[in-house]
Write a structure and sequence with these properties.
heterodimer; A: Rossmann fold; about 40% helix; B: about 270 residues
Chain lengths: ~270, ~270
């Protein structure tokens, strides 16, 4: 481990609110992710988790603070990061193969080579024979696999994942989680994994960061997950140590979750 | 409803039979214009004679020249109008400055009834096909323009961000994200815009020309030859149906990536 792959230093993001005024989504967040470390960020819904990820990706400039990537302040898009989005982000007019080759194509890799590498990657995520399917012809889980291959073929050093599996059913989800862990342990990248599912966070990560309810979200707790690897996400959940960790983290989160819930409800009543 | 087409044909035959019955001076006694049995035929034509005219056109070969002219005008108006609409739509969609500047002009030009431009185009481009093409272009342009503009504005921000994260630069975003999205909107307006190109061609011919199906109709009307007018209308209608069918085929080929059609087959 040679220092931080990504570090947030006093990041604050304030947005102009509709109808005047402003809204601070995250306030004074400092957080760092080591090289090769798998960090999950959990927090109540609507707490600005995605905002943090967009800052790390360089898609969003923070109002205050610095984001460093391997020690360098980030300017523009983070070229060392791959991003897996919560909703479908595949290019709908390209088939599975063309979606996976997209990144290589943008980088000017010759067609023959990128096709060969994309076929390899599609096979690795279990989609051999589905090369010519368009995204709408694939199931939700298959689309996620294509998105995973699309990101990993570029061999990014940092993986930013925004609730990537939240739309999947529980079985598909555990399958995908195991596959992610397998791919990750073969070639350890730094991962920032956003989720609202505490069990998912614990079973995947080296470290879990808990965020407070929004607005002005900030980290309120950090927990090292000392479960042995390699893990099977379904089996890990049965271990006593898992339950113990789950209990501790849940206690620190509970209040914030209730706060977040109350706010959402109030907002809905007000609207 | 597997036999739907049989009923559709029967309905068509019934309509023409009723038409013939109601207008023929000899089949049934006149009931509206009792004093003049052939007056109904004068106003509404007689299907028998209409089909005779059409038969004469196709066997005599006089119609092909006119159909070819109308087809050329329609195709040219569509291609030129769609290309301009696509280019301007992409440009204004991607440049907020330009779109803010031109917004009132676009609205005004779109609201203006473009048919009144036909005489001006005739002065500019003469009585040949180009004045009709110009009229069709003004009609097609706005449909395509608005669709493409919308297509650019409604590119999913997630897809866009994904392409950015995959390393696309500005030019690649245009080529691989905006353009496919915009063309999909272009194709979804294909039926309307091809139809408009056709309207432009026929209206242009009707207002002043020396060939084309619109010209035939206009000539016949000048001679109070109602049967030939209806014959022209029928030929135009069938022609429009054929063009629409071809467009539908093209659309299906080009938009395979679009969701919406179920993929099951009957076993």
């Amino acid at each position: 481990m040679t220092g931080a792959a990504v570090s947030f230093e006093g990041i604050t993001c304030t947005f102009a609110a509709r109808g005047g005024g402003s809204y601070t989504a995250v306030r004074d967040v400092s957080l760092s992710v080591d090289e090769g470390e798998f960090v999950s960020v959990v927090g109540p819904t609507g707490c600005g988790k995605s905002t943090l990820l967009n800052v790390a990706a360089g898609l969003l400039r923070p109002s205050e603070g610095t984001l460093r990537v391997f020690g360098e302040p980030l300017a523009g898009i983070n070229r060392r990061a791959g991003y897996m989005f919560q909703t479908d982000a595949l290019l709908p007019w390209r088939n599975a193969l063309e979606n996976v080759t997209a990144g290589l194509e943008f980088r000017g890799v010759p067609g023959g080579e990128s096709t060969r590498r994309a076929q390899e990657w599609l096979a690795r995520v279990g989609l051999e024979g589905f090369e010519d399917r368009y995204p709408h012809q694939l199931s939700g889980g298959m689309r996620k696999r294509v998105a995973l291959a699309q990101m990993l073929i570029l061999d990014p050093q940092i993986l930013l994942m925004d609730e990537p599996f939240s739309a999947l059913d529980i079985q598909t989800r555990q399958l995908m989680e195991n596959e992610l862990l397998e791919l990750w342990s073969a070639n350890r990248k730094s991962v920032i994994f956003i989720t609202h599912d505490l069990e998912e966070a614990i079973s995947l990560s080296d470290r879990v960061v808990v965020l407070s309810a929004g607005p002005a979200t900030r980290p309120i707790g950090e927990f090292t997950i000392d479960l042995a690897r390699p893990r099977d996400v379904a089996e890990t959940r049965l271990q006593p140590r898992f339950l113990e960790l789950h209990d501790r983290i849940w206690h620190s989160m509970k209040e914030e979750v209730l706060k977040g819930y109350a706010q959402t409800r109030n907002r809905m009543v007000a609207a | 409803m597997k036999r739907l087409w049989i009923w559709q044909v029967l309905l068509l035959v019934a309509i023409f039979a009723f038409w013939q019955l109601a207008t023929d001076p000899e089949l049934i006694p006149p009931f509206v214009w009792a004093e003049n049995a052939s007056r109904a035929a004068f106003f509404f034509g007689e299907p028998r004679k209409i089909f005779a005219v059409i038969w004469e056109w196709f066997t005599g070969g006089t119609i092909y020249k006119h159909l070819w002219v109308t087809l050329q005008e329609t195709a040219l108006a569509f291609v030129i109008g769609a290309t301009l609409g696509l280019a301007v739509g992409l440009w204004l969609g991607l440049s907020p400055m330009a779109s803010a500047l031109f917004d009132p002009y676009i609205t005004a030009l779109n609201a203006m009834p473009r048919v009144v431009l036909a005489p001006i185009f005739m002065v500019w481009f003469g009585l040949g096909i180009w004045s009709k093409v110009a009229l069709g272009v003004t009609l097609v342009f706005f449909i395509v323009f608005f669709n493409v503009y919308q297509g650019v504005k409604e590119v999913s921000p997630v897809v866009l961000n994904n392409a950015v994260m995959l390393g696309a630069n500005r030019k690649q975003l245009l080529r691989h994200v905006y353009l496919p999205s915009a063309t999909s909107w272009l194709f979804s307006s294909l039926h309307t815009s091809v139809g408009m190109a056709f309207v432009g061609a026929v209206v242009g011919e009707y207002l002043g020309s020396a060939s084309g199906v619109g010209y035939l109709i206009q000539q016949a009307e000048g001679a109070f030859d109602i049967n030939t007018v209806f014959a022209g209308i029928l030929v135009l209608t069938v022609f429009a149906l054929v063009v629409d069918f071809v467009v539908g085929r093209v659309e299906r080929r080009l938009l395979v990536w679009r969701p919406g059609r179920s993929e099951t087959i009957e076993l």
